[in-house]
Description:
The chain is an alpha/beta fold. It has a domain at 80-107 and 117-300: Rossmann fold, CATH 3.40.50.300. The chain is 33% helix and 21% strand. The protein has helices spanning 41-47, 94-101, 119-124, 143-154, 158-171, 187-199, 217-234, 245-251, 285-300; strands spanning 50-63, 66-79, 83-87, 109-114, 128-131, 205-209, 237-242, 254-258, 265-270. A hairpin with a 2-residue loop joins strand 1 (50-63) and strand 2. It is globular. Mean pLDDT is 85; it is low at 1-46.
Amino acid sequence: MDQRVARRPGPAKQSVALGTSPTTSIRPVERVTPPETATGEGRAAAAKALTVDARGVSLTFQTRDGAVEALANINLQISDGDFVSFIGPSGCGKTTLLRLIADLQKPTSGTILVNGVSPEEARLKRQYGYIFQAPALYPWRTIERNVALPLEIMGFDAKERRARVDRYLKLVNLSGFERKFPWQLSGGMQQRASIARALSFDPALLLMDEPFGALDEIVRDHLNEQLLRLWDQTGKTVVFVTHSIPEAVFLSTRIVVMSPRPGRIIDIIPCNFPRNRTLEIRETPEFIKIAQRVRAGLRSGHSYDE
């Protein structure tokens, strides 16, 4: 876990249940209509603050064998309260793009703003929480002490740390496991503890890099439902990396389909399902239609003969 991430102002009086966030919008920059001429959905999007604004972002790695172009001309806007999933083949740059947003890497060209400032400034202001593929819990610390670690680093007093640990462990259904060690919990429970840790300092943005990828399908489905409830209760903006089409369609307000390296945006697909949806929605014609569009986008950008 990146221990440099954020504490938002006025933590003591904040509530976990922030209600329903407004209608979301995400689209390539070149399609955005200026506020003065926007109509309909364009006006709604223009009125919302952007959590992430990427323009012309490219990244090239220099290796012994020569330059490797990882990302090419990424233009993307993510509005406050969105749940956006990146999906694409392995090696297409999904995690790399997430790391650029988190200031864990720097783009070769283009610009990224996070909450209106550079990724570096957002990191220093601790405005995001990062959840890795593995839980990354310290085995010698209990669950409550793992969740409290960012709060200790940020200087929260013991009373506030206790209140926040209790609040977020309850939110991820881990109350009663405070004194357990990570090795005493299942993989799904460990990942929920890592989510509680990322939420503990109340960042506006959650960056999630395939957090459920190593779990079996039953546990994964359960955690998907829990994550949706958590997103609805907290009003966070979520950027989520996945290889799973059903997971992307079920969780997201928008799905960003990416091509093989160099990663480009092939399609941005809206998912206008109710926020309180359940797994049964996966059997509906609307869900299947969106899943087919995602699959078609992945096939159009990938040559299986290579």
